[in-house]
Design goal:
mainly alpha
Length: 268
């Protein structure tokens, strides 16, 4: 495998996506607005709920919410299929992708990583700059927590990109891809903790959510950032992320190999 070719493709797409500054500004404003709404809802929950101790403090929950808003474009709503590849499937121009002297799954995986990393730089940095001094977002309690969070976020990027690529491969079996584009984000948003932090779920749901891969996309890295999980938990978290990344990659490659054999491109 020519790794340089995939790195070049990633770099080119990364630079192209950095040009969408107006979209990033609009997205930042939207995420700031919804972040404030979620913070107010959770504040009402903590202040008017039962007197029993919660598994996360209000301050930790507020930081968790702002982390979710900062990385929303990467995790996990954008896990639906690549819109450009969806258009290629409809028009038949996917044949040009197949004609490239590159591994097709690796090509789409590189696109997915670029699509989830470039927009984050345009939105996450302003979110930190605003949420930390003005809206209650805390910084990591120690350098070890910050390092563990950074490593886990790289694992989250690889994981969500592998999952997204698997969804993109599923387009070989659909007409438009709208179904999977609607269902998958709803599942991932809930199971990753982006709607409600996973520690606040009922006890009966905790083992189920812990067994699924989606917590590694948001919940586990965020809790490392806050110190809710100790830095010593990072190796196990990253190992689980990489294991699920490999599983999604193997499934994606198997489906792609089968789909390419049955693909028929009409037109001329």
């Amino acid at each position: 495998m020519n790794l340089r070719a995939y790195l070049s493709l990633f770099a080119a797409r990364f630079k192209m996506l950095l040009q969408y500054r107006a979209a990033a500004i609009a997205g930042f404003g939207t995420q700031l607005f919804w972040g404030l709404i979620r913070v107010m809802i959770l504040e009402a929950f903590f202040r008017n709920g039962a007197a029993t101790a919660q598994p996360m403090s209000l301050a930790e929950t507020i930081t968790y919410v702002w982390l979710g808003q900062a990385f929303f474009v990467m995790i996990p709503y954008s896990s639906n299929p690549d819109p450009e590849i969806r258009n290629m499937m409809r028009s038949g121009s996917v044949a040009y992708e197949m004609a490239r002297p590159l591994d097709l799954w690796g090509l789409w995986y590189a696109r997915a990583i670029a699509a989830r990393s470039a927009p984050v730089l345009l939105r996450a940095l302003p979110m930190f700059a605003v949420a930390v001094p003005f809206f209650g977002m805390a910084l990591p309690p120690s350098g070890a927590s910050a390092l563990a969070w950074a490593v886990a976020m790289v694992g989250a990027l690889l994981l969500v990109s592998a999952f997204s690529t698997l969804l993109t491969v599923s387009l070989l079996w659909t007409v438009s891809g709208d179904g999977i584009a609607r269902l998958a984000p709803s599942l991932v948003l809930i199971a990753s903790g982006m709607i409600v932090p996973i520690p606040l779920f009922p006890d009966w749901a905790q083992p189920i959510l812990a067994a699924l891969p989606f917590g590694g996309m948001a919940d586990a890295p965020f809790r490392l950032y806050m110190g809710h999980l100790p830095p010593e938990a990072a190796p196990l978290i990253v190992a689980k992320q990489l294991l699920w990344t490999a599983a999604f990659a193997l499934a994606g490659r198997a489906l792609l190999a089968r789909g390419v054999r049955r693909l028929v491109v009409q037109g001329g």
